[in-house]
Write a structure and sequence with these properties.
mainly alpha, single chain, globular, 2 strands
Length: about 120
């Protein structure tokens, strides 16, 4: 992956995620550094920065409002599933946490994703 241009905390999508966690859940996102670590790992896995991860789930057409791309969202859900399962030595709870962290990031950025069956 091309190195990120900025620290993760400086990306607009990460700021949106953290703001949503604070406002909707009362969670201090900085109290759990694993959130940013997992997002960084996922970004490296898909070779995109956080803002590009969100943009990959959107469809922009000239003269029309940007909307969620079904194909983009489906593709990102597949990448999350691959990211969850890539480490054979982690238990199912940790695999679920890895995926849920990335889904949380996307959901707080307006991209609805469901987890499916967690095994």
């Amino acid at each position: 992956m091309t190195p990120l241009e900025h620290p993760l905390e400086e990306y607009d999508s990460v700021k949106t995620w953290f703001k949503g966690l604070r406002e909707q859940s009362g969670v201090d996102p900085m109290s759990d550094p694993s959130r940013l670590r997992l997002l960084g790992e996922f970004c490296a896995f898909v070779n995109l920065d956080p803002d590009q991860v969100v943009t990959a789930c959107l469809l922009a057409k000239e003269g029309r409002q940007t909307k969620i791309s079904i194909k983009g969202r489906r593709g990102m859900a597949e990448k999350i599933a691959q990211f969850q399962s890539q480490l054979a030595d982690v238990d199912s709870a940790e695999r679920a946490r890895r995926g849920n962290t990335i889904r949380s990031f996307l959901i707080h950025n307006g991209i609805l994703l469901q987890s499916g069956i967690q095994i």
